[in-house]
Design a protein that fits this description.
The protein is an alpha+beta fold. It has two domains: 8-101, OB fold (Dihydrolipoamide Acetyltransferase, E2P) (Beta Barrel); 114-267. The chain is built from six helices and 14 strands. The protein has helices at 100-110, 118-128, 154-167, 199-210, 215-229, 266-270; strands spanning 8-18, 22-24, 28-30, 33-36, 42-45, 64-71, 81-84, 90-92, 132-135, 140-147, 181-187, 192-195, 238-243, 251-257. The strands form four sheets. Strands 1-4-5-7-6 form a five-stranded mixed barrel. The chain has a three-stranded antiparallel sheet with strand order 9-13-14, with no helix packed on it. It is globular, with a radius of gyration of 19 Å. The N and C termini lie far apart (64 Å).
Length: 271
């Protein structure tokens, strides 16, 4: 029986997070992108071979895009998951810059449907299969560094390179460099630990290495940045979180939202 093509929709999405690209047997190279619509609903877009997109389609964080996409079928029943048509991606204007006034411009969309705690997202997952969200963590205690393998699976790499030669993949013939560490946030009184796979983790790590730091020193700089800077006392830190297809009950951190803490207004003080 031939299945009908899933209905395509035109989406307008404010990009919030991009995960670090990883080789993936089914999709070649996977970058999971997440964002919100104008009504604050979360959307997951994959697969996207981001490094092979033309420059004018390589969207940035907090930039609006238009894209034609259809809901995933088969294994992925998560309500936020869409399969984009890469050729349809269109960026809309410049990213919303992170100056003080424009954090509010971001927040009016990003925080529309925020959860108060991680426990709220677990409850939403049970009730309506929620698999993406944002919440404000309590008691951010540490960023844990764990050693990891320094390269992707050799057999898979060989097959991937051969495939890309035949496809004339000039932008990404070689897979992205693998970060030889895993990073996890530890937070709340009962010591929750959640993996962090933000694109910016890998970008910062390799920038430090390329500047001459040892891998261990680069990992410590990632920890300092994501713990002291992004989670400092002057930041109103939130975590973008979601589940993965293979582990739908486990949540990981896709990105960090860190506007500055705003002093109460005169109106608030009167109240």
């Amino acid at each position: 029986m031939i299945q009908s093509t899933p209905e395509q929709r035109k989406l307008r999405v404010l990009i919030n997070v991009k995960t670090y690209p990883i080789p993936f047997s089914k999709y070649d190279e996977l970058v999971c992108t997440a964002g919100v619509t104008e009504t604050g609903d979360f959307v997951r877009l994959y697969p996207i071979n981001f490094r092979d997109l033309p420059y004018d389609k390589q969207y940035k964080k907090y930039q609006w895009i238009k894209v034609t996409a259809s809901r995933h079928t088969g294994r992925d029943t998560r309500k936020e998951s869409y399969r984009p048509v890469s050729e349809s991606i269109r960026t809309l204007g410049d990213p919303i810059k992170p100056n003080p006034g424009n954090w509010r411009g971001r927040s009016q969309y990003v925080l529309q449907n925020k959860a108060k705690y991680m426990e709220d997202l677990w409850k939403r997952q049970k009730s309506d299969q929620t698999s993406l969200g944002i919440f404000k963590p309590r008691n951010i205690r540490d960023v844990v560094i764990q050693p990891d393998s320094s390269d992707w699976n050799p057999e898979f790499l060989a097959a991937l390179r051969q495939q890309r030669i035949w496809e004339d993949r000039t932008n990404s013939l070689e897979p992205p460099r693998k970060v030889p560490f895993k990073f996890m946030y530890r937070f709340q009184c009962n010591e929750h630990e959640m993996s962090l796979i933000d694109w910016e983790v890998g970008a910062l790590f390799w920038r430090m290495v390329d500047q001459g730091r040892t891998p261990e020193s680069a990992a410590e700089e990632v920890k300092r940045k994501f713990l002291e800077d992004l989670c400092g006392d002057d930041k109103d830190t939130h975590f973008f979180v979601g589940t993965t297809l293979n582990y739908p009950k486990s949540w990981i951190i896709f990105g960090v939202y860190y506007p500055k803490v705003e002093p109460p207004s005169l109106f608030d003080e009167i109240l």
